[in-house]
Amino acid sequence: MRLRPILLRTILLLTLAVAGAHFKGAAAFAQEPQAPAAAQEAPLTDTPLDQATKEIEKAKVQLTALQDGAKQNADNDDALVGLATKADELSRAVITISVNLRPRFDQIKNRLAEIGDPPKDGQPPEAQIVADERNALTAERAQINAVTGDAENLSIAVTKLLNEIIEMRRRLFADTLFRRTEISVSVLDDAASAFVHEVSEFSQALSSWASFVWKFKRFPLFAAIFLSLASALILLSGSYRLFGSYLRRDEAIENPSYIGRLSIAFWSTLIRTMALSVLLVTSFFFLNSFNVLRPDIAPVIGALFGAIGLVYFVGRFVNAIFAPREPRWRLVRLSNLGARSIGYCLLAMAIVNALDYLFGTIGEAMGSPLVLTVVRSLIAALIIGLILIAVSFGKPMLAKNGDPDAPGRHWPRGMGIILRVVGAGLILTALTGYVGLARFIATQLIITGAVVATMYVGLLSGKAISRQESFADTFFASFLTRRFKLGPVAIDQAGLLVGLAIYAVALLVGIPLILLLWGFHVQDLQLIAYRLFTEVRLGGISISLLGICTGILLFAGVYLLTRWLQRWLDGNVMARSHVDLGVRNSVKTGIGYLGIGIAAIIGVSAAGIDLSSFALVASALSVGIGFGLQNIVSNFVSGLILLVERPFKVGDHVVSGTAEGIVKRISVRATEIETFRKQSIIVPNSELINGLVGNWTHRNKIGRSEIPVSVAYNADPQQVMDILLELTAKIPLVMRNPEPHVEFLRFGPYSLDFELRFFLADMGDGMAVRNNLRIEILKRFKAEGIEIPLPQTDLTIHREARPALAEAGRDQPNEQESSADTLMEEEEQPVRQLRSKTADGNRKG
């Protein structure tokens, strides 16, 4: 009871003390002058030079740590791979430091060039502010040079470290392969006892893990299995939808084509193996992510999945290449017995390698002695060597009569000897103690051989599909033909693209697998790919394939966007606004060239190409323009003038030199004119700019049409003029303002000549209107009895009487009359011929 007043008294005293301190601090704050605002602001950020200096110091610390790590892990290849990756990242970071300082260095250099050198002795002194600026810039330039020098030295040191790591890994790989172990009876005894102990420990570990998972991790186990199966089924179902015809052999086909056999062999092996790989990889990933796997069991499960994938891949390869039970789908000339025996031998060697790898991983997980791993590899090498020797004595080749069921023939000359030498070499290498080398060779014989053979089949498939008119017979070509209505030429071009795609798939899948089998790590492949796509050096030029691809994609994207904008403006904005066709063409062309220019600039910038490097090319082009390219440049500039000034536009009726027709297209180099006989004439733009061009539809399409009419002299001129105007008034296409009129032109040699003149709103209708109007005029003239005369000439012949003929005529009157009649006929014959020719000419006219 007495404790409560004491507690209350203590709390009251603490409260008063805190309040007094608060008031004392407030009074002190009121008495002290307030600090200036500048002192209260946060410190200024570091300059780029300060940041670069700090990054250089940090990089030096990282380099020291990497060097120490390389010395400590000289015998650990996995650790060296990680160190190499970090060293490469450090090298790129150091290079980035120098690159970031380059713009500031160029600014200082340009500014110092503007300021100039300090005045010499005897010259007037310069302003102090100029001298201070020069000194500050000079000092900053010296600091940048120092930092850049440190960065270069650091980059050299990092490159040296990378080379040392590569040399360590190469030496470690060679030492591992050529490490020799004594093979004796005691070694085999030690291995046997170690194997018994390993089996016991692994059985206990596996049973304890299985019971733990079943009791506490049952749901994560089923979830991981379900997700893995779902991933594999999605891939497999999608593959069957796309490549279903290339995954199954059609039993109804009696004699499949070579391209069909190749395609099924390649795609069935690749896709089904990838589907199983996805299942195994995702299973391991989900089991590990859900904490189902223990640290001692996880490597074993991973090795088990790898062994399953290896055996399945070799099995699919054997079935695809050798087709033991389907000889008509076989890709090699083997008998049925030979195909089965070779396939079983290859599958047996794959199983031996897979088990060796699995048991080796179990030994590492259980901490088994090295002697057990050596003996396992020895046994695997001996088995594979014996299999190769046994295969060399077989008769797998197809009989001469081509019957696959008939007994086969021996291997080709030299092949059997090679197999025996390789098998004996494996056995001899293993027995002499080089077990690691024997195991490596045996593994490469099986896995690398299968990968290389599958790649080769893929390349053959791509070559066969790329062959002219070969792709048209495939299922995929039939689908493209039905879906996109492609013609034979387009299908053939698509076959070429599909062949190139198959080449790419075969190489991109096969080469990384081979590199992994020959000692490379995934980090090595990532580093190689990164350098290949970002830093390819040709002399002093650094090319980024990724940047180039990005630039091409951006160029294509902007180009397609430009084309879409052209179509949208032309079809929506300008068409709805009833803009003139020529204006629409000019706008479309201008937007097109502007878009291409912008796309080119964006693409080149994204590709990382320095435009200043084109200075030499530009100077060379200027010389070329001065000599051989001046006509091209002249046409280009003339085209731009035509598009902007628009003396004529698309759809205009123009006359230029010997060309007359309708303008169909105006580009920056030439203009296309289509004549009325549908002939396209390409006229360079410079000729249209420098020459005379007649444009019938420059301002508008209004034009005058004329029809000449000739009548006989006995016709009434006023009646003729009234008829012509009456007939013209009936045609709706003829304009009323200006109104039509008839001109009495002249008194012709045999006719009265008139000319009917009228205006049309569109000159394009002139031919049809004139044609119809002539028909109506002819009909009306016939109805009114108005004659259209034929061209004629009157010829008068004067004859004089001959005396001799007169005297003789008294004696021979009949002969004289006959001669005179004959002479008159001969003289009148040219006149008749002239009239006949004139009449014929008038009919033709």
From TrEMBL:
Keywords, alphabetical: Cell membrane, Membrane, Signal, Transmembrane, Transmembrane helix
Residue span, Mechanosensitive ion channel MscS domain: 631-698
Membrane topology: Multi-pass membrane protein
Signal peptide: 1-30
Chain segments carrying region Disordered: 800-845
Domain named Mechanosensitive ion channel MscS C-terminal: residues: 706-788
InterPro entries to which the protein is assigned, alphabetical: LSM_dom_sf, MS_channel_C, MscS-like_channel, MscS_beta-dom_sf, MscS_channel_2nd, MscS_channel_C_sf, MscS_channel_TM-2
Location within or outside the cell: Cell membrane
Chief location bin: membrane
Membrane-traversing stretches: 221-243, 264-287, 299-322, 342-362, 374-394, 415-435, 441-460, 494-518, 538-561, 591-609, 615-644
Bias kind Basic and acidic residues: ranges: 800-813
Protein family membership: Belongs to the MscS (TC 1.A.23) family.
Name listed for the protein in its UniProt record: Mechanosensitive ion channel family protein
Source organism (scientific name): Rhizobium changzhiense
Species lineage: Bacteria, Pseudomonadati, Pseudomonadota, Alphaproteobacteria, Hyphomicrobiales
